[in-house]
């Protein structure tokens, strides 16, 4: 579905590389299969999800995508599209639809489950868990994981959720992580440390969900101790009256990368995060991280090693940790180098691709032997 934070392009590249002898059929659910904003789907979604769906633009969008009418419609259309194809396997990204077809091995790669949202702060539950926590939708989502030959996940908390929240057998789940979108040749240029300018970087499209208002409060406190520090906001355009703050807005990926180069600290106090590829990008650019202690983030932010994790919505502790880093350029550099090494060793598409390829091949051999 769309770019999936540039993940779909990277997955496509690794599949083309590993299966170069096979033609690959690509189907974008929203472009090739359905119009989820149709009048019919809107009526079904409102009947199933109720008036809470109208609470916000985001809730409306989630409701239009998460309903059984659309789920079953997509499954029928995918089956019709694929039933006369001679396929080695199907590979699905994201777990909003079940694109498995009987008799064809199906592999799924995702960064979220709905029930994983239950552990997020109270302020966001209305948008997610309470709105769509109905038996019909949970049954649909559960079928995705159980019908898949293998479920690939980007993080340990999602593997845990698929197993414990949805009852999927452990041998059908494999955490393969995710790769960085930053090219290695760019990283080789970082050997000479840039001038320390006390620039804090925020990158996110959804200002509210990514904890922007909390960072705004924290930065006001930071300015009291470091009046020469600055905050750069990339990806969204909130209307702020904040000293030393530059709002850049949404940019293409290649232009976003230049802002990592200019930054000294990366801060994203997100309230709900399926994965957050921007963390990986920031660490690849040797930036220390300050983030919230939720979801996937403990997988790659190690307190006191490459950054700090704080409780959601705790702007005072957030400010304290930002000030601690601004007080010490040496600590920023040490944290940045540790994070970059961690990313280089674990979060590379080449490594992710090998895990996915090996798992698919082992699964296909097992199926062939059983048949």
SSE order and pairing:
Layout: H1 7-18, H2 29-33, H3 39-49, H4 57-65, H5 68-82, E1 90-93, E2 106-110, H6 129-132, H7 135-147, E3 150-153, H8 156-164, E4 173-175, H9 184-187, E5 199-203, H10 212-225, E6 230-234, E7 245-249, H11 253-262, E8 265-268, H12 277-284, E9 289-292, E10 307-310, H13 315-326, H14 329-346, H15 349-370
Parallel strand pairs: 1-2, 2-3, 3-4, 5-6, 5-8, 6-7, 8-9, 9-10
Helix pairs in contact: 1-15, 10-13
What does this 3D model show about the protein?
The protein has 371 residues and is of the alpha/beta class. It folds into two domains: 7-179 and 348-370, Rossmann fold, CATH 3.40.50; 184-346, Glycogen Phosphorylase B (Rossmann fold), CATH 3.40.50. Helix content is 45%, strand content 12%. The protein has 15 helices and ten strands. The strands form two sheets. It has a six-stranded parallel β-sheet with strand order 7-6-5-8-9-10, sandwiched between helices. A four-stranded parallel β-sheet has the order 1-2-3-4, sandwiched between helices. The two termini are 33 Å apart. Residues 125-129 and 184-191 have low confidence and may be disordered.
In a nutshell, what does this entry contain?
By secondary structure, the chain is an alpha/beta fold.
> How confident overall, as mean pLDDT?
89
CATH architecture of the largest domain: 3-Layer(aba) Sandwich
Strand proportion, as a percent range, falls in: 5-15%
Tally of extended strands? Answer: 10
Overall CATH class of the largest domain: Alpha Beta
* Largest sheet: number of strands, sense, barrel closure: 6 strands, parallel
Helix proportion: 40-55%
Classification by helices and strands? alpha/beta
Strand order of the largest sheet: 7-6-5-8-9-10
Per the CATH scheme, the topology name of the largest domain is Rossmann fold
Number of domains: 2
Outline the low-pLDDT stretches: 125-129, 184-191
Order of helices and strands: HHHHHEEHHEHEHEHEEHEHEEHHH
Measured distance between first and last alpha carbons: 33 Å
Give Rg in angstroms: 22 Å
Count of DSSP-assigned helices: 15
């Amino acid at each position: 579905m769309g770019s999936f934070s540039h993940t779909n392009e990277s997955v496509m590249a690794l599949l083309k590389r590993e299966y170069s002898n096979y033609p690959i059929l690509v189907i974008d659910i929203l472009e090739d299969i359905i119009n989820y904003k149709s009048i019919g789907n809107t009526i079904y979604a409102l009947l199933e999800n109720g008036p809470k769906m109208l609470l916000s633009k985001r809730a409306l969008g989630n409701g239009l995508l998460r309903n059984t009418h659309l789920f079953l419609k997509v499954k029928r259309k995918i089956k019709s599209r694929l039933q006369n194809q001679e396929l080695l396997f199907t590979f699905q990204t994201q777990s909003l639809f079940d694109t498995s077809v009987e008799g064809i091995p199906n592999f799924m790669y995702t960064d979220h489950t709905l029930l994983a949202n239950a552990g997020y702060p109270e302020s966001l539950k209305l948008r997610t868990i309470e709105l769509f926590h109905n038996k019909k939708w949970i049954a649909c989502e559960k079928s995705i994981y159980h019908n898949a030959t293998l479920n690939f996940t980007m993080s340990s908390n999602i593997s845990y959720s698929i197993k414990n929240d949805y009852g999927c057998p452990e041998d059908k789940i494999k955490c393969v992580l995710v790769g960085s979108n930053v090219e290695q040749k760019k990283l080789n240029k970082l050997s000479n440390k840039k001038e320390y300018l006390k620039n804090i970087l925020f990158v996110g499209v959804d200002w509210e969900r990514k904890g922007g208002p909390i960072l705004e409060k924290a930065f006001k406190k930071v300015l009291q101790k470091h009046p020469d520090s600055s905050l750069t906001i990339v990806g969204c355009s909130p209307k702020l009256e904040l000293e030393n703050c530059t709002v850049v807005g949404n940019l293409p990926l290649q232009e976003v990368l230049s802002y990592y180069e200019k930054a000294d600290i990366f801060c994203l106090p997100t309230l709900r995060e399926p994965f957050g590829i921007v963390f990986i990008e920031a660490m690849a650019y040797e930036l220390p991280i300050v983030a919230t202690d939720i979801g996937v983030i403990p997988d790659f932010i190690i307190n006191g090693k490459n950054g700090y994790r704080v409780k959601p919505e705790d702007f005072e502790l957030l400010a304290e940790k930002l000030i601690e880093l601004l007080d010490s350029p040496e600590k920023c550099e040490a944290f940045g180098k540790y994070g970059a090494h961690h990313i280089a060793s674990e979060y590379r598409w080449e490594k992710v691709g090998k895990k996915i390829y090996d798992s698919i091949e082992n699964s296909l051999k097992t199926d062939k032997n059983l048949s």
